[in-house]
Amino acid sequence: MAKWQQLKRKCDYLLGLILNGIGALGIAAAVIASFAVSASAQSLLEKIKNGETIRLGFASEPPYAYPGDNNEPLGFVNAITLDILKKLGPAKVEPVVTEWGSLIPGLQAGRFDMITGGMFILPDRCRNVLFTQPIGRLGDAMIVRKGNPDKVHSFQDLRDKGLTMVTGSGYISVKWATEAGIADDKVMQVAGVAEIVQAVKAGRAAAGSADYFAAKGFVDKDDSLELANPYTQWAKPGYPAIAFLPNEQATVDAFNAVLKDYLGSDEMMKSVGKYGLTKENLPESATTAELCKG
Q1: Which domains does the chain have, with CATH numbers?
Q2: Rounded to two decimals, what is the model's pTM?
C-alpha cells in the first residue's frame, strides 16, 4: 500500500473517531436537556403537593399584601392564599416583595410563582396571567390634603381644573385618567400608595388615586390628609384575585375548587377580618371569565 494511502486511511480513522465522539456528546447533551426539561415541567400544583417552597410575589400595599417585621407575608390576599395552600399541600412559602409595576414582569421572569398583591382582574392583564376567581369587590378613593383645598371630588374635577393627579405605575387609575380626558402630563406615576401620599402632602399633586382600603389605611394615620368626600368613582368596583403564569391552569383550577367553599366562610372572615375586609366586600356573582372580557 502506498504511503499516501496509509496516511489517508489513518486520517479517515481519526476523523471517524472525532465525528463519533461529537455524536456521542450530542446524544448525551440531548439526554441531559431532556431530563432538564422534564424537571422544569413540574407544575406549581405538584410543587405545592410535594411540600416545596412556593414564592409569593407582592408589592407592599396594605391591607392587600405587605411584609411583616420578620418578612412574613401579611395582608388579606396573603391570608387567603396561605389558607388555600394549606388545603392543597404542605408547601412552605417565601415572600418576594417588589414594586407594583414589576409584579407581572417578575412572574414572567420566574422571580416568584404567583402574584398575591391584590391585582384586579382586567382584560389586558388576562392576556398575560391566569387569574383565580375573584376574592373581593373593592372601590377606589381620592386622597387630598386636609380640607380638600382644590375641591376635587372626581376625575372630571381634575380634568376640568387642569390639576395634576398622582397614582401608582400600572394602576387601573392610569387608564381611568386617560378615559376621563386628563392630559398625560397631568398624571404622575409613582411606585405605590406610600409615594402617592408623599406627592399629595408635598403639593406635587392635587389628589392621589388609589384603592379605597389602601388609601384609608394611610389617611387614618395622617392628620394632614383626608379622603375626598363626596367622591364620584369613574368606574365600577374592582375585583382582585390571585394570579399565575398562563401554563398553570391545573393550579388555578385547584385554587378555585378550594375557593368555592372557602369564600365567605367563617374561616375566611376570621383570617381577613383584622385587615378590614367584610362580607360586604365579597365578589357576589362576578366571574373571572366575565371580567376578562371587560
Answers
A1: 44-137+238-289 (3.40.190.10), 140-227 (3.40.190.10)
A2: 0.76
